[in-house]
Each structure stands twice: as structure tokens, then as C-alpha cells.
Amino acid sequence: MTTIRLTNTKTRRKEAFTPIDPANVRLYVCGPTVYDRAHLGNGRPVVVFDVLFRLLRHVYGPDHVTYVRNFTDVDDKINAAAQARKAAGDPRSLEELIRARTDETIRWYHEDMDALGALRPTHEPRATEWIGAMIAMIEDLVAKGHAYEREGHVLFRVRSYRDYGALSGRSVDDMIAGARVEVAPFKEDPMDFVLWKPSDDELPGWESPWGRGRPGWHIECSAMSYELLGASFDIHAGGIDLQFPHHENEIAQSCCAHPEGGFANVWMHNEMLLVNGKKMSKSLGNFFTIHDLRKDRGIPGEVIRMVLLGTHYSKPMDWTAEKAAQAKATLWKWRKLTADVEPAASPDAAVLAALADDLNTPAAITRLHSIAAQEDGALLKASASLLGLLEDDLRGWTLPPVTGTGSGVMEVSGSATAIVGNVQYRETIERLLDERKQARMGKDFRRSDAIRDLLVGAGVIIKDTPAGAEWDLGADFDPARLGEPE
Ligand SMILES: Nc1ncnc2c1ncn2[C@@H]1O[C@H](COP(=O)(O)OP(=O)(O)OP(=O)(O)O)[C@@H](O)[C@H]1O
Ligand SMILES: [Zn+2]
Q: Checking DSSP bridges between strand 25-29 and strand 65-69, what pairing results, if any?
């Protein structure tokens, strides 16, 4: 069996991965707060840990991996978004507005992440459906002396957990010095964080032993991972921005509530997608959404995925137009090479080895290039699928309309053969090349040049050989531009 090695943030070492139960390998990834469209940075953990999910499924069997990724659908930012809509005159109740907003955002999220080729996790729990489990965990923490109630709030007593800070390798005092900790008069210690807070009549709230209120963000992941994966599971992952305080707090809560378990054995953190050296984030306003890239800029989800996988997850990266153009050109070539091809029975050993070595996606992609250079479409297809690339579903490759059948752009879903197997492109291109040949023979070079310019302008690559003209479709091929030459 392939040995997977993963860098564990907790030990700061690359370690051989041994699941607790190979028949049920368990992975938890912190999901989004659903108040707005996902930006490109939010796509990075999704794509990175989708590759991990695919790798685990390959090694342990698709039915032996449980992947949980939550939706945080109770949050001050969500409330604020709904309140803003109400203030703008929306007649619906705040409750209806919140539900509409979170439902819509989840729909958008699925659309975008499907387009990036991410498999849906096994479970996608919504926090609001697990409030009972959160209340039970908080009660347990209070009973064990790890939490206390003050003025309708319940706070976690950080100093009651000796290992607090172990994940980030920092002492509590260092963390206080470096972090923006909310000082509240009712806290015993500035580091203590909220497990439960009161809700006024307007805001969403649930009855609890501490009055009507709502959970803090950190307790959501602790409660849902416990319910769905148990007190000990294999891998917990998310962006590096969540390491402190979110993950430290999750560990403190889970380990104190369930000292019988070890919570997560392996912690994995993806580095950030940057814009001009700064984390892409909603609060800085320096973001663009995955939806913008796909719909407004016409970049296929598969191209976005390839760019994200072009950098190792442990390194910061940025998005550039050049990277996108390069990924598009590569995928276009690979798509043509694998169209109508049955995948080989198993992936290339070197691609598998690269991924098993701490998800080395750039090395895996380099290897895919050599497989493509050998024109082994079957092996290319089987190996690329471990990275979620070149699958039958076109994943948002936007193909222009067949010549002569209308205008605009159509989204093709279905077989990849549509890209090259379109007889009508072929007929038009070959007819034009034939007309060019006739024009040349009749020494009408103005016309033959015009036809060549037209073809090249539409993204057709022409090679004149002694046996006649050969052609191929370039990555920027756009048959909408295959009009008639002047
Ligand atoms: N720039 C980024 N690069 C990589 N991952 C990111 C980036 N920004 C957020 N993430 C990750 O996206 C996931 C969803 O996070 P969350 O919903 O909390 O983001 P957010 O709060 O909407 O983002 P922001 O940080 O922009 O306010 C988390 O795993 C987080 O680590
Ligand atoms: Zn979490």
C-alpha cells in the first residue's frame, strides 16, 4: 500500500500517515461562513484538500474515507448582511432574510466549488442544525470547570487547559501580546473566548441553560466534528489563518470535553493566496470571486484549479494572468490528447508518489507534462484524475458555438470529445484552407492571406508542409471569429 507522508503542523514534521481505522479514514476541513460569494483564496483549501480526499480514496478505497466540511450559517457577519438588507427596505423578517442569504450562499458555493472540480464532502453540516450538540458540549465544559457563565455569556477558561498554544508553538502570554483579544469586563482573563453569547429578540437565537442565545464560532467545529467523526479522528485541515485562534480554541474545547480522545492526529494548513503580498480577504477588500473569474472573465473552473495546484499548498502564492493563460494552454492540449480516450487502469506511479509526498502537486503536474509529451493519453487521463483534472465533465470549459448556428457563448457539459470532435468546426476550417489553396493557385495572394489571417485570428494553428496545410486548434480557439474573409 502507498505510504502517504504529510506535514503535521502540530509536530512541525513530515510524518508517515497511519489512519486510526483504515476502513474509515476521517478528515475534517473548516468550511466557509456563508454570507457572501467565495473569493479565490477560499477556493485554495477546497482544491488542496480535495486532492487529499482523492488521494485517500485512491489509497484506502472510495468507501473508506469520511470527509466533513461545515457551513457556518450563524455568525455576526451573516446577521449584519441581513440587517443591511432589511434597512434597505426588504419587507421580509430578519429570520427569513438570514435563511434566504445562507441558502443562496450555499448554492453559490456549491456551484463554484463544483466548477473547480471539488468532490462534495461526505457530510456538509450546517451549524444551525447542530445547536443541541453545541449546547451539550458547552454544558459539559462548564461541569468540568473549563468554562464559566457571565452575563448570559459562556466563556472558555483558557488557563484551565495546559496545552493551549501547542499547535502554534507559542505560550499563552506571547499569544496575548500578539493577538487582538477582545477585552470584556466579564472575562476572568483576556484570553478567554466565547462559547455562547446572548441574542436580543431581533437576532437568531436558541433557548439554552444560559438564556436565549447563539454559539460562538469555535464551538461549532468542535461539536460537529465530534458528532460526525468522534472524539479522535485522523486529519483536521484549513487555512493557516485559522491556526490561531480558531484551531487552538477547537483543540482546547474538544480535548477538555473529551479527554478520552485525542481530537485530530494530523493538522494541515494551506498557505494563503496573496494579492500584492497581502492575504486575499474580504475584510481588506482586495479580493475577486471565483464567480467573477468564471463568468465575467470566462476562465474555466479547471484552469483555476490547475493554477491553484501549480504551487505547493505550504507556500504562499498569487494569481497572475500569465499563470492562467499557461494553465489554459496546457489543459487545452491535454484535453485534446485525452478526448475519446479510456483512462488507463491505474495512475502513473510517479504522479502517485508525488502526491503521497505531502501533496506535491507541482511535482505531479511536471510529471503529467512528461506523460503528455509521450502522447500517452490513457495514462495522462488516469493520472490527472488523481488531481481532479481531465475528468469527463468539462467543468466550465466554455466553448463557443458551432459555426453557423447562432451567436453568444454556450457552456458545454458532457463529453470532452465536444472540444475536438466537432465536425462543424472541422468542415469550416478545412473548407477555408481549401479556399486558401485555390486562391494561392490562382495567385490571388490578397485573398489567401486574408483567409490565413482569419484562421489565425480565430486561434487555428496552421502549418504549411510539402504535403499541404496541417492545422490544429490553439488554446484561444474561438470559432465565433471564423467568419468569412473579406
Ligand atoms: N487568501 C486566502 N488564501 C487561502 N485560503 C484562504 C484565504 N482566505 C481565506 N482562506 C480560507 O478559506 C476558508 C474559509 O474561510 P472563511 O469563510 O472564514 O473566510 P472568510 O472569513 O470569508 O475570508 P476572509 O478571510 O476573506 O474574511 C478557510 O479555510 C480559510 O483559511
Ligand atoms: Zn473550524
A: parallel
Residue 476, all three cell numbers:
484561444
Question: CA-CA distances (angstroms) from residue 384 to 90, 179, 269, 332, 390?
Answer: 47, 42, 23, 13, 6
Superfamily name and number for 5-270:
HUPs (3.40.50.620)
Which residue reads 468522534 in cell numbers?
230
- The answer to whether the beta carbons of residues 215 and 155 sit under 8 Å apart is no
Please tell me whether 30 is known to bind a ligand. Answer: yes
d(CA 236, ligand 2 centre) in Å: 9
Grid cell locating 253: 474545547
Q: Which element (helix H / strand E) includes 147?
A: strand 147-150
Going from the Cα of 393 to the center of ligand 1, the distance in angstroms, rounded, reads: 27
Is 246 labelled a binding residue?
A: yes
pLDDT in tens, 428-459: 888 889 899 999 999 999 999 999 998 888 88
Q: Is the CB of 42 under 6 A from ligand 1?
A: yes
Contact (CB, 8 A) for 47 and 308: yes
Q: Which ligand is nearest to the CA of 248?
A: 2
Give the number of whichever ligand sits closest to the CA of residue 246: 2
**The residue type at 238:** G
The DSSP result for 1-42, as a single string, is -PPPEEEETTTTEEEE---S-TTSEEEEE---BTTSPPBHHH
Residue 224 is classified by DSSP as H
Delimit the CATH 3.40.50.620 region(s) of the chain: 5-270
Q: Which residue puts its alpha carbon closest to atom 14 of ligand 1?
A: 32
Tens-digit pLDDT profile for residues 236-287:
999 999 999 999 999 999 999 999 999 999 999 999 999 989 999 998 889 9
Interval between CA 24 and ligand 1 midpoint (Å)? 28
What pTM does this model have? Answer: 0.85
Whether the CB of 241 sits within 6 Å of ligand 1: yes
Q: Whose CA is nearest to atom 28 of ligand 1?
A: 239
CA-nearest of 2, 221, 261, 205 to 125 is 221
282 is in an annotated binding site: yes
Distance from the CA of 436 to the center of ligand 1, in angstroms? 54
Do the annotations mark residue 279 as ligand-binding?
A: no
